[in-house]
Amino acid sequence: xxxxxxxxxxxxxxxxxxxxxxxxxxxxxxxxxxxxxxxxxxxxxxxxxxxxxxxxxxxxxxxxxxxxxxxxxxxxxxxxxxxxxxxxxxxxxxxxxxxxxxxxxxxxxxxxxxxxxxxxxxxxxxxxxxxxxxxxxxxxxxxxxxxxxxxxxxxxxxxxxxxxxxxxxxxxxxxxxxxxxxxxxxxxxxxxxxxxxxxxxxxxxxxxxxxxxxxxxxxxxxxxxxxxxxxxxxxxxxxxxxxxxxxxxxxxxxxxxxxxxxxxxxxxxxxxxxxxxxxxxxxxxxxxxxxxxxxxxxxxxxxxxxxxxxxxxxxxxxxxxxxxxxxxxxxxxxxxxxxxxxxxxxxxxxxxxxxxxxxxxxxxxxxxxxxxxxxxxxxxxxxxxxxxxxxxxxxxxxxxxxxxxxxxxxxxxxxxxxxxxxxxxxxxxxxxx
Length: 433
Description:
By secondary structure, this protein is of the alpha+beta class. It has helices at 2-10, 34-40, 71-79, 108-113, 119-134, 153-159, 164-174, 188-204, 218-229, 347-350, 352-358, 396-410, 416-432; strands at residues 16-18, 30-31, 59-60, 66-67, 87-89, 93-97, 100-103, 209-212, 233-235, 242-246, 249-255, 258-261, 265-267, 276-289, 302-306, 317-323, 334-341, 363-374, 383-385. The strands form six sheets. The protein has a seven-stranded mixed β-sheet with strand order 7-6-15-16-17-14-18, sandwiched between helices. Strands 4-8-5 form a three-stranded antiparallel β-sheet. A three-stranded antiparallel β-sheet has the order 10-11-12, with no helix packed on it. It is globular, with a radius of gyration of 22 Å. Belongs to the Rab GDI family. It comes from Pomatostomus ruficeps (Chestnut-crowned babbler). Its main location: cytoplasm.
């Protein structure tokens, strides 16, 4: 919502952004001080002395990293919201296999030394990566007999004779699929995802992921500032009493007895329970640790992916870990957040493989959230509803949703270049130098 209010303001629309909370970012806020997190999860008492100063903590409720070459970084660069943020590269990505975790190789040397696969497998995998790197959907000479719109990914893996372990790690740690459904779909999307991973990795070398200092709560604030620069208005602590509809179309929002009139409305599912449908649940467990995660080479930040196959599930389990190095925790403390899509009536059991990797855990905060999707695309009502944040640990699916809402509102595709031009019109070329 904050990103869209920024983009719409740049597009010359008059934007009023209301939030019933006293902080920015709604569901994806970073909670500070630590006392507030204890309150939010109804834990008795206050944090122990050992946790350091409460205000040294900024704990994300929904953990996500940014792909260095991904859509959100592009949005940040084009809108220049980067000037309000500082990023750090996440030190490593790990994948779970047979009860142990292994580093996802980030260089050719690491790949050769990795015990994730045997020597012959490595050669075949390298051939596959070279193929992906050279693959250009506009140049059939790079296809080598593969039809990007017809050949399934399963067949592409077969072509390179890759074994199950390598397939698991490629599909889930590189292409970042949550399930194995992609295997029987056309390979173009998967190849593009692996390309995105490789290109993101190439930018900084340690991993393809970035994370903002002071937590993800900085992102909505950055876009709220962008909106303000272009004349948008932001109101926190603003209760929403009613969305006013006439003849099936939104005409305004009632708050504290007044109606703010509007032609279009963007909101998350929590504001319009009658226009969304529940599509699943996510469990997230925020864990405070006093140690880096075992077998990660004492990394101060990392991601761990547990592919569903490895733990007899349909969807992957993710762990995001950050620490005092990112100004989100007290000195010497680490925050690890495990998340997955709920599949049974006992979600806490489902996430156990991840929590086992984190022991000993000093404090746990467990949340189970319903996932909602809009039943109303907004064409008639002009109410545009976002989807709930999923279990993935990067922003690509969120950006797809942003582009989808943009298209439904504006009737045209979201175009980064177009935004760049609009900004030049307002600021003029000189000031940007």
